[in-house]
Amino acid sequence: MTRKQRRLMFIGSAGAVLAVALGLILFALNDQIVFFQSPSDIVTQSVPPGQRIRLGGLVEEGSVIRSDNAEVSFRVTDLENTVAVTYKGILPDLFREGQGVVTEGVINPSGVFVADSVLAKHDENYVPKEVADALKDQGHWQGGESAAN
Amino acid sequence: MVIEFGHYALVLAFALTLVQSVLPIWGALIKDERLMAVAPPVSVTLFVLVLLSFVALTGAYLNSDFSVLNVLENSHSAKPLLYKFTGVWGNHEGSMLLWVLILVFFGALVGAFGRNLPADLRAVTLSVQGWVSAGFILFLLATSNPFTRVANPPLEGADLNPILQDIGLAIHPPLLYVGYVGFSITFSFAVAALILGRTDAAWARWVRPWTLLAWGFLTLGIAMGSYWAYYELGWGGWWFWDPVENASFMPWLAGTALLHSAIVMEKREALKVWTVLLAIFTFSLSLLGTFLVRSGVLTSVHAFATDPARGVFILGLLCFFIGGSLTLYAWRASTLKQGGLFAPISREGGLVLNNLFLTAACAAVFVGTLYPLVLDAVTGEKISVGAPFFNLTFGPLMVPLLLALPFGPVLSWKRGDLAAACQRLYAAFGLALVLALVAFWAWGMEMVLAPLGVGLAVWVMAGSVSEIVTRVKFFEIGPKRGFARLVGLPGSAWGTAFAHFGIGVTVLGIVTASAFQEEHVRTMRPGDTVDLSGYEITFDGAAPRRGPNYTEEVGHFTIRQGGAMVTELDPSKRIYTARQMPTTEAAIHTVGFSQLYLSLGESRGDGAVDVRVYFKPFITLIWIGCVIMAFGAACSMADRRLRVGAPKPARKRPSAPVAAE
Amino acid sequence: MIFWILIAGLTAVAALSVLVPLSRTRRLPETVASQADEAVYREQLNAIETELERGLIDADTAEAARTEIARRLLAAHERVKAAPGASRPKTGLKLAQAVAVLALPAVTFGLYLLLGTPDLPDQPLHARLTAPAEGQSVDVLVARVERHLADNPEDGQGWAVVAPVYLSLGQPRASAKAYANAIRILGPKQEWLTDMGEALAIAEQGLVTAEAQRAFEQAVALEPSAVKPRFFLAIALGQEGRKVDAIAAWEALLDGADPTAAWVGAARQELARLTGETPNMTAPRGPSQEDIAAAADMSRDDQQAMIRGMVSGLAERLTTEGGSVEEWNRLIRAYMVLGDKAEAEKALASAQAAFAENQNDLSRIKDAARQLGLSGS
């Protein structure tokens, strides 16, 4: 093999690996990313049941109902619209009524959001960034920058 | 006074970094060895100065001196002594000071122990390290000064974020930073090589111990962080593909690639251009991680409270160092000479393959971490890229790498013999195959991937063992001489074997803990029992308890197996008084390599409580594997050949040439 | 002074670490670049010999590797020879020395004076708490007693000392708790019981709760002639709406009392209110209809003055006697209306301090403040 052939082969194999990697990344980006939606997005845009999404907003005051076997249901609101959520599992330490929350899961055919993970940040003043932005869009954000950090 | 002394020392350190940035490199360019000779003592002085200011800040924490704003905001007089100490780096300013301390520490190491280096290379490297130090000390002083004072301080501080009040925090950030920041020195070496126009085998040899040191600590730091998140956050997960975790993982991947490509450069003077680029990339990714964590573009459990001015400042530093080094690279790389030739099937070929896959994997993590940020900035659309993305991209890229891994060390340089290599590995392959089949038979056919994963892990582990065994020709020369040769093996050979074995161990832990984990979430009343993986877990009741700066509700559980008591576990739910912040304290029982993991959820009144119970088979292997990898790095560093050129033995040599003009 | 000497010393050490290597006259062997390279390549040659010995590589490979390394060795030699000899320019050295002696201290001192606070001494908590009591703020003294009591919770006298201080700091609940501890440890005393009852009542905006009432009753039982507990018990009867009993209680209290005593006026007023059916007194006090009507007739300046007078009156009352959330909010709003943001923030801070123990009230205060554009801490 000449030097040139070797070099071509080297570049060729490198290109092949990178092409595979790129393909994987693009495929995964198409398929595996989860969009963040506010309750208003869900109500107005009718997300198809079964598609994974992240739902963020505030936990509506007085909406948390705990049933046996670590099941819990609550409503998430952006102060315009609300979406009912059910979740089975341990809620994070900072899950509280009136506080920001991000849940991930799918909407079932009856319009209830079935979450398989619930996130609330480890900081008492925390409103997740996505939620804060969404609330700002809705014009309900009054906390200003001081509360967003 | 002590505090102001520390503050002054930090300001003096900044002024001295400016001297360090200019004089030695100027000396190297005009060949004045007196100017070059400034670099080593100044680098040591710099370390002492920053150490003084770090000690002053630590003293303020230990004495609860709330006249220091940083202490006021992050400490509390009732905090246990250990957490007063670790609290120094549990906040942005303090951890940045630790960052800088490690930065100048590496400079001082090169200054003190780099006598085997040519004077010009050492001077320029230390100058470049001086630029980085100057940038970050200025960042501290300008935007995040830990020595800001309060004239009439209150009598109590705001306390440290409770999830950071843990022994894990004592260890995790310093380890991680030694790794993260340690790559600054390889960066400085790379920039110095470009400036001086000398990238050769000797350069690669000199850089290797520094890369190994940083890599070993980064490995431990990541493992420690993972274990800390596992038991402290109470979710039972050990890796979340959280952007901040990725921020430390990307330099690890790039650093691993660098470690391997530098070997090729050292042995064959090939891949020079690529190795220098990797050294620049690795530290750039460290800087990127620092930017992501501290600028507030990310929201994460790890992220510090932030301020936009800091983000802009770090972004400036990031652009300056990455942009500057890449420009220099573009300008000088073309002058680097071609290196040695090699066939595709050879040790070099294997290492190139390793680099290809590691870089591709690093790129995948990079895209997954930054894509949501870019998309948000450009279109305002909010997405989350979670575990599924990384499992789909990172996973497939790792499989061929692990499959090929055992071949690397058994191939010879320049032109390898694949058939001979296979011959040396057939035992390892057989063992992996048998164990994979046993796994199939034991767990049934519905789990296809897990047994294959087990086979892959065993293949990597057995491969590294058989590499050592065949290398000393254990079976051909008999055990007695075999052992003698085993002892005589160079440290780097042991290093390779241990690091590769460690990878296999970690993979085995990941596969078994993810595939065969059992989990129950249940609301339990006192007296209730849950069965899990052969254990009967009985909830006996919960009771309140008081800690120094928290109160907690402790659940008491009795674990039995076949009626016989195994252990008692006390997970709890804490409320830290100063911040009124709840945390979950999981209780873990280790059986062999497996763990039983209990964490408490909400109390339901009437004594009932939500309980999450996991059985995680072989999970500790994940972290044990990392420790083995770091041990491998230590073995490799202990290789006496790395200290070659050290002047101490050279000076004793009577024939040492003196002052050749 | 010691501080300045110390930092001067530190600066000198830093400057010396630059100056000493600059003043070197002798050349050191380590500056010979080829030596370092050679050592590496020689070692690589040795490694090849070892590998050959062990049979890890064959003779051909070893030979090829040797040639390769030898070539590198030669190249290193060539490079060193080709390099220009070391220069020792004088000007550069002078400049570098000047940097060390002048620029380094100048930059450091300048920057430090800009950033640092050299006059501010260290203030370790332990020292602050054990320093002589004179000239210390009340907060420090209270914190000291608190720490002492946390370590010695059975020191009844300590609780008795801190209890009235809490009340004057506007922490009636803490005060009541301290009195309760003192009574538990040292036995009941009329004054303590009375003051505890008073603190409990203040905590509820003047409402004599059942708990407070019990305290007053115990005080009276200990000392039937004591005026203060009976005064509060009379108020309690009035608050309960037991008019006849209340009138009887007030009359009994006033019977034979020293007419110059401070409380007599208040008692008479209360009695008059109960008998004369004047409008109830439990509603928050504010300017009367007449006051407001009068305000309408006044000139703008006079109005401002009157409003200011009312506001400062309210402020004084709230800071000395305490008040409800509504009253505090009204005060904060009044300051904002008057355009006095600084005072509004001060009032907000004291309101938050006054309700620090009640999350619900605290959030009401914060909400109101946020609407006014103030940021509660």
Compact overview of the structure:
The complex is a heterotrimer of chains A (149), B (661) and C (377). Chain B is α+β, with helices and mostly antiparallel strands and 661 residues long.
If you had to describe this structure to a student in words, what would you say it looks like?
- The complex is a heterotrimer of chains A (149), B (661) and C (377).
- With 149 residues, chain A is of the alpha+beta class.
- Residues 122-126 and 141-149 of chain A have low confidence and may be disordered.
- Chain A is built from four helices and seven strands, in the order H-E-H-E-E-E-E-E-E-H-H.
- In chain A, strands 2-4-5-7-6 form a five-stranded mixed beta barrel.
- Chain B has 661 residues and is of the alpha+beta class.
- Chain B folds into four domains: 1-165, no CATH class; 221-333 and 344-404, no CATH class; 407-516, no CATH class; 518-616.
- Chain B is built from 21 helices and eleven strands.
- The two termini of chain B are 51 Å apart.
- Chain C folds into three domains: 2-17 and 33-81 and 94-115, no CATH class; 148-276, Tetratricopeptide repeat domain (Serine Threonine Protein Phosphatase 5, Tetratricopeptide repeat, Alpha Horseshoe), CATH 1.25.40.10; 289-371, Serine Threonine Protein Phosphatase 5, Tetratricopeptide repeat, CATH 1.25.40.
- The longest helix of chain C has 26 residues, at 90-115.
- Chain C is built from 18 helices and no strands.
- In chain C, 27% of the residues are buried.
- At the B-C interface, helix 1, helix 2, helix 3, helix 7 and helix 9 of B face helix 1, helix 2, helix 3, helix 4 and helix 5 of C.
- Strand 1 (34-37) of chain A pairs antiparallel with strand 1 (383-384) of chain B.
